[in-house]
Amino acid sequence: MDFYRAHVLVCGGTGCTSSGSAELIERFEKGLAEKGLEKEVKVVRTGCFGLCEAGPIVIVYPEGAFYSRVQLEDVDEIVEEHLLKGRIVERLLHKDEKEEDVATTLDDIEFYKKQNRVALRNCGVIDPEVIDEYIAFDGYKALGTCLTEKTPQEVIDIIKASGLRGRGGGGFPTGVKWQFGHDAKGDQKYIICNADEGDPGAFMDRSVLEGDPHSVIEAMAIAGYAIGANMGYVYVRAEYPIAVKRLQIAIDQAREYGLLGEGIFGTDFQFDIEIRLGAGAFVCGEETALMESIEGRRGEPRPKPPFPANKGLFGKPTVINNVETLANIPQIILKGADWFGSMGTEKSKGTKVFALGGKINNTGLVEIPMGTTLREVIYDIGGGIPDGKKFKAAQTGGPSGGCIPAEHLDLKIDYDTLTSIGSMMGSGGLIVMDEDNCMVDVAKFFLDFTVDESCGKCPPCRIGTKRMLEILQRITDGKGKPGDIEKLIELGESIKAGALCGLGKTAPNPVLSTIKYFRDEYEAHIYDKRCPAGHCQQLLVYEIIPTKCIGCGMCARVCPAEAITGEKKQPHHIDPDKCIKCGACIEKCKFDAIKR
After folding, report:
1. What does pTM read for this prediction?
2. How many CB atoms lie within 10 A of CB 103?
3. Which residues form the 4Fe-4S ferredoxin-type domain (predicted)?
4. Digit-coded pLDDT (tens) for 333-385
5. Topology of 541-596 in CATH?
């Protein structure tokens, strides 16, 4: 084994890869070779560190120096100063928005201080394409413990006692689901990992597969042992090429090491895994539609019952868990149910990974104990709202979730609390909105997504969501009518009651929650023909402020509709009938003489 005095960890997640981290790795390797340091310093491509906003990220150990936004031209300086001369390059160290001093190491950064990385424990720590690195961090030890020291029922009892709930949607108890699979009768059973992450703004599962694929493989094998399955499938969207590549490498390595296949750990247990690629249909995130897709048919939900645990893939008993749920399993086996249960709240144990995006300073992945408040996530971890704007709402659960207003900023995040206020945990997307977001338009955005992605199998979803979208479109166009709000509520409740699958039943949530908390905005659109956020284009009116306008004519020159007139050095005027509300005049005016 080669020993190195220093390691350069470069983020190889999708975000940093798109920002050029692969080129950084090549430059580091070349620079180290030129200095004769290639046998002293090892460059490691890792998974996502989480702080995507600061990418590309490079961490140099043993000092733990956290370099953010590293560019190609910075590499030579790091090699020369830090790796050759031992002097940390302070100008490249990460600096928190609210802190004057630079943060030398990861632990000094505010973004990480309130996090507890369990599912993400190895992301940004190991090379996901080297099985030995996973094994060095107790990888496959949990599987070995289960196969050699515990019965299948004992494994299920541990998961039950831990209180782990499914991290992919409604939060069904994982141990109970495994018990159903264990008790079901069948000559063949299956384990499925649902990695079809389709929510807008969600990238948690992708990051786990990219940064720690062996944790999912190990967990699937443990689940297979627990319920009596010998075959597993990972259903992952083809839009995740890095995740798919690393997952296949990990599967091949596990087979080579005898950790998949026959006689695992010298026992009579056998288990293997295959990857199935999805074509991007959002509905295939629903478990029964997912199984239809694996079987080679159009992804459409099946009526339930029968439930998958009794009659699932190819008509056989099947247990389906999502990526994040599985990533917790090995740690629960190794550290115990009490350890996992010590985190979180009474009914929502452990941690939850969120993809934090939208109007937030620190976009990225965060993993927090259940029960952490929304305020802590947004202001302590997320660094607050850019440009000093006011927080307006946070949307959780993607198209199936709802909007949480500012009055609930101190809400403790867990499954039941979110459900009680009209939202849901979902897979873990968390989109932050500020005062410039129009909540009617937000509802329209998510419903437009749902209408486009509906499989069309059941009329409530196929027809009902389309009618709701038409009403929302009319409202944002300034053509709303009295009674539209009531129609939206009636339609939403009917869809929730009558849709076939969970996705259809939750599709009205963004509309119903925004009506509940931001009804005044709907009323302003309908009755006053005004968008309070100044966002809906058809409701905007552009006016020139005479006392500020110096008559320079710049606005008139850039107006594509020739709607602005006026004499030179005299206040100009905008013809509302000609104005197409493009905003070009506001962008060009240097005197803030145009108001919207």
Report:
1. 0.91
2. 19
3. 540-569, 570-596
4. 999 999 999 999 999 999 999 999 999 999 999 999 999 999 999 999 999 99
5. Alpha-Beta Plaits (3.30.70)
